[in-house]
Specification:
By secondary structure, this protein is of the alpha+beta class. The protein contains 2 helices and 4 strands; from the N terminus they run E-E-E-E-H-H. It has one domain. The chain has a 4-stranded antiparallel beta sheet, covered by helices on one side. A hairpin with a 2-residue loop joins strand 1 and strand 2. It starts with a strand and ends with a helix.
Length: 71
């Protein structure tokens, strides 16, 4: 039997994690383009995947916007 959980960051559903029967880890499937870099990564739990998605959001929000730097 497989398990699946939706991963949310704030009000956004950014992906889901799936664990097939016999697997020990959950695989992340991005549902939002901004989280594509997490797509395919494996996590020990859904909570670990959510933590990674939140860390990814924090990293993306703290990066300088290149478009503003070029002006």
């Amino acid at each position: 039997m497989s398990c699946a959980y939706v991963i949310e960051v704030g009000d956004d559903q950014v992906g889901l994690v799936l664990r097939d029967a016999g697997d020990r880890e959950f695989q992340f499937h991005a549902a939002h383009a901004a989280y594509q870099s997490l797509d395919g990564q494996r996590f020990a739990s859904a909570a670990h995947a959510e933590k990674a998605a939140r860390a990814h959001q924090a990293h993306v929000l703290t990066r300088p916007n290149r478009r503003h730097m070029e002006l």
